[in-house]
Amino acid sequence: MNNASVTVYRVEAFLLDGVPGLEEYQSALFAVFLLVYLVTFAGNLLIVILVIRDRSLHTPMYFFLCNLSFVDIIIPTVIIPKLLAVLVANDKYISFAGCFVQMYAVLAFGSTEWFLLIVMSYDRYVAIVKPLHYHVIIKPGACVVLAGAAWGLGLLAPLLPVARMLIGWRGKAAMRSPPTGSEKREGAGQHIRAAGMMPGGGE
């Protein structure tokens, strides 16, 4: 029986390179991404405030639009601050747990946005096809249920894939045949490089 070797790599953090090849333009990229983020944040926040404060906008369509704008505030807020830190503060490390939390948040709120768009499409469908029954079908209670379903499905949809990926990263060992001498040296080099990528690690 051939002996099989097991190589286990414990990943503690990831190194983010930012935008490779454009290192000399990092300040300009920082300004562009910051401007886009601020415009996106301010625009969607303005929609949320207007819908809440203006009673004439208290309709199903604007209720769903308010939810959509709130999601559009969260998604870039999950991504852009870390990107800006990579570009300007040279903070290029993200922890293993932080990476998976960020990935789950992007997938969850991205899924929520899609479900909200489906709900908004249904709202417009009823308004166009059955205008006389619109206020009977799309009642305030129904709006809350539809929006709650969109949020619930969106937050639950990526839970299983992310959990399976997390278990795979933490629990799997790469099993292969006994390595040759060159493979041993290559594997050792990769281990040292991975250690050097850890905060405070040396190459």
From TrEMBL:
- What UniProt keywords are attached to this protein's entry? Cell membrane, G-protein coupled receptor, Membrane, Olfaction, Receptor, Sensory transduction, Transducer, Transmembrane, Transmembrane helix
Compartments reported by the entry: Cell membrane
Q: What is its main location?
A: membrane
- Pfam families per UniProt: 7tm_1 (PF00001)
Q: Where does the record place the G-protein coupled receptors family 1 profile domain?
A: 43-203
Q: Which residues cross the membrane?
A: 28-52, 64-87, 93-120, 141-160
**Membrane topology, record value:** Multi-pass membrane protein
Which family is it part of?
Belongs to the G-protein coupled receptor 1 family.
What protein does this entry describe?
Olfactory receptor 1L4-like
Q: Which organism is it from?
A: Huso huso
